[in-house]
Design goal:
- Keywords: NADP, Oxidoreductase.
- InterPro entries: ADH-like_C, ADH-like_N, ER, GroES-like_sf, NAD(P)-bd_dom_sf, QOR-like.
- Residues 13-326 form the Enoyl reductase (ER) domain.
- It holds the Pfam family ADH_N.
- There is one protein chain.
- The chain is an alpha/beta fold.
- The protein has two domains: 5-126 and 270-326, Quinone Oxidoreductase, Chain A, domain 1 (Alpha-Beta Complex); 143-266, Rossmann fold.
- It contains nine helices and 16 strands.
- Strands 3, 5, 6, 7, 8, 15 and 16 form a seven-stranded mixed β-sheet that branches. Strands 11-10-9-12-13-14 form a six-stranded parallel β-sheet, sandwiched between helices.
- Strand 10 (170-175), helix 4 and strand 11 form a beta-alpha-beta unit.
- Helix 2 crosses helix 3 (155-166) and helix 2 packs across helix 8.
- The longest helix is centred in the middle third of the chain and has 21 residues, at 118-138.
- It is globular, with a radius of gyration of 20 Å.
- Bound molecules: NADPH dihydro-nicotinamide-adenine-dinucleotide phosphate.
- The site of NADPH dihydro-nicotinamide-adenine-dinucleotide phosphate has 29 residues, from helix 1, helix 2, helix 3 and helix 9.
């Protein structure tokens, strides 16, 4: 029998609730494949799940991880187009990718080109799919637009801001350390501002001739929401796609009118790649943009799977630049 192991937690809490456990690997069913995972991506949503901030009501112990990459080792009946030995990435919140193996529907797997390693795919795929829908399908964006991006040196932020800059969009990135701000400028952003210092709003107003940005992408939430609204020009768009600092609550919608007929959306990746065809098309765009140099592989911090708790500590302490991956 295959030796399978996974990171699980028996109760929500601090990173030390994470532990490595053996489990019996089930056989792939109809339409499913088994992947031997070579690298799993760490995402902020994993921190929310582990801490209990995001509750899905599933039974304990729970697994973690929404993406991974590796080699197909088994195909159930009715699987078409994939065979044992193929290398794939997958994005699936039900499998728990902090593990040695994953069993998932073949239609949710993305075949990897030879020149994209499993570690690169794990660093890139979930965040790249997020960057794709946010910057191409969520709000209107045009060359020369002004965009403000919070947490611009993070996993999603570093991919998305480089992609926007490659389209001639002027991005003002916010980040909390000197090293992160250097990275933001290296990605092609117009300016990098200190997210923990005052002055961001006056810079944004000044550089846009007093009008404000066309669009703000905010994944920080409660701590930055008011700055995001105030940074917009009339009829501008706020894309609130995360809540790293806490939920935004108790907002009076009438304020959108008085602040300049603003638009606010709160999108989720699952609603942009829910159909298999959408996933395939978005993943193809991420891989094609990587190959054309329109997006870069994020900086990668690599840790062994057994150090998942340390990975979560680094992420929630705002110390990550680019992507964190776990290697079984
Ligand atoms: P990041 O690598 O961006 O890490 C989060 C960053 O947020 C930190 O590095 C930090 O950057 C910033 N931050 C600001 N305030 C806090 C705080 N109080 N606690 C922790 N971090 C803080 O993570 P990901 O790339 O994995 O995800 C980015 C965001 O996008 C997350 O909020 C995630 O939930 C969201 N997301 C949303 C999706 C959607 O479809 N809606 C899909 C995927 C991700 P700094 O120190 O520079 O401020």
């Amino acid at each position: 029998m295959t030796h399978a192991y996974a990171v699980v937690f028996a109760t929500p809490g601090e990173p030390q609730v994470l532990e490595l456990r053996d489990y019996p690997l089930r056989a792939a069913g109809p339409g499913e494949i088994t992947v031997a995972i070579e690298a799993a991506g760490v995402n902020f949503i994993d921190v929310h799940r582990r801490s209990g901030a995001l509750e899905d009501g599933s039974a304990f112990p729970r697994t973690l991880g929404v993406e991974g990459a590796g080699r197909v080792v088994d195909c159930g009946p009715q699987v078409r187009g994939l065979s044992p030995g193929d290398r794939v990435a997958f994005v699936d919140s039900s499998t728990g990718s902090y593990a040695s193996h994953a069993v998932l529907p073949a239609t949710r797997a993305i075949r990897l080109p030879d020149d994209v390693s499993s570690e690169t795919a794990a660093a890139l795929m979930f965040k790249g799919l997020t960057a794709e829908y946010l910057t191409h399908r969520c709000v209107p964006l045009a060359p020369d637009d002004w965009v403000v991006w919070h947490a611009a040196a993070g996993g999603v932020g570093s991919i998305a801001t480089g992609w926007l800059a490659a389209r001639g969009i002027r991005v003002i990135g916010l980040a909390s350390s000197e090293a992160k701000r250097r990275q933001v400028l290296d990605a092609g952003c117009y300016a990098a501002l200190d997210s923990d210092a005052p002055g961001a709003l006056s810079f944004i107003r000044d550089v846009t001739d007093g009008k404000g940005a066309h669009t703000v992408f905010d994944s920080v939430g409660r701590a930055t929401f008011e700055l995001s609204l105030a940074s917009l020009r009339q009829r501008g768009h706020l894309v609130l796609f995360g809540n790293a600092s806490g939920d935004v609550t108790g907002f009076n919608l009438s304020r959108l009118g008085s602040m300049g007929s603003l638009h606010v959306t709160r999108p989720s990746l699952k609603h942009y790649i829910g159909q298999d065809a959408e996933l395939a098309s978005s993943a193809a765009q991420v891989l094609a943009s990587l190959s054309k140099g329109l997006i870069a592989v994020p900086l990668i911090t690599r840790l062994p799977l057994a150090m998942a708790a340390e990975a979560h500590r680094i992420m929630q302490d705002r110390q990550t630049q680019g992507s964190l991956i776990l290697v079984p």
